[in-house]
Target: Sigma-54-dependent Fis family transcriptional regulator
Amino acid sequence: MVIDDEEKLRGLLSRILRTEGFEVYEAADGKSGLKKLAHENVDAVLCDVKLPDVNGVQLVQQIKSSWPLVEIILLTAYGNIPDGVQAIKNGAFDYITKGDDNDKIVPLLHRAIEKAQLQKRVQELEKRVGEKFSFKAISSKSKSIQEAISLAERVAPVDTSVLLTGETGTGKEVFAQAIHQASARAGKSFVALNCSTFSKEILESELFGHKQGAFTGATKDQKGLIEEANGGTLFLDEIGEMPLELQAKLLRVLETSEFIRLGDTKTTKSNFRLIAATNRDLKKESEEHRFRSDLYFRLNIFEVHLPALRERVKDIPLLTEFFVHQFAAKTNKKPPQISAEFMERLQAYHWPGNIRELKNIIERAVILLNGQELTTDQLPADVTAPPVRQQPISAFDLASMEKLHIQRVLNHTRNNKAEAARLLNIGTATLYRKIDEYGL
Ligand SMILES: Nc1ncnc2c1ncn2[C@@H]1O[C@H](COP(=O)(O)OP(=O)(O)OP(=O)(O)O)[C@@H](O)[C@H]1O
Model:
């Protein structure tokens, strides 16, 4: 948009820009310029400094406060550099001297528009990421997970630590992301670290960062994740695996918001929110001195427990549909029908790996699919085998244990007895005898 009260000059500039391929709007003063900005999708403004109703330098500030993504180039009077400098301070992209720098206008506009469009794209992506990781994206019909969502939604805007508990694959990281997105820290970084995947030394350096020469191999200064999370959220997965010594250091950071990089002498500040997750019983761990009780009490202020998938069987069809569509799209297939038996098996299975395992099994099934319907043929043996009846057995009853174990191995081999005998390290005849004996 060109804002200039000199009609001739405005018309000339607009014509030049149109021949360059730009779509151009015109305004003769600040007020009509602001009005047009409210209605049109403008990327960049070329604005004269001397307008009848407002000074262009002030107009920059007004435009930026309402449309921060619009880039402005100010046309200043010859030799009036202070105006240009002030315009940049007010948020202008750049300034050029009217009449003098005409050949610079087009390349400068290209750069301004490129920046504006890039920023719009980033904003749109951030919005999409926000939606993807929002609580709304966690679809569920079961009461237990809805309670967890409601708890997490209430704690999200409060800047306190949160402890997410639940078995592996229950969606703890998904919840951590949703809490971050629903907090005031949403625009800032979400930094995740799994405490079980590193040795103590690497974990310490990953968390706290290091100075050059702090240890062999530290060839340059390196920021730690605590520092990277400044202003945002630090998600520590499997915190129960963190060595005791580091737990003490983490507690200190939580209490003071300060830490010292490895090999450094001065402290560094970081303002982050901690969300921790564990699949262990941290209370028990702390009672047995494997987890610091002071850190446990600090983390335990707000706990959200995520139920295992077998405790939310109602959600299996919903999640299955979701993953089937996701993987069909990924493999360029039409979303298949889901046979009743396929769904029954999924609902009967005990899902030790929870949602992650369901997701993997659906991905595999969609890859194996060649017709228009998912059937039990596309399910692995573990899932299709009849469920092992978990009869209450005495820990001392060897026969019950043996029966259960044989049944499990048979399930695993899809009733292939030769393979089961091999795995059990017994003869086939012995296996047949035991099958008979236990009525398997
Ligand atoms: N409600 C959900 N909808 C769709 N996908 C989900 C949902 N919850 C979890 N998932 C998917 O399941 C997988 C496991 O989730 P996530 O990593 O959050 O679990 P976790 O509890 O943090 O696991 P771990 O303890 O092993 O780190 C991920 O691929 C995630 O995208």
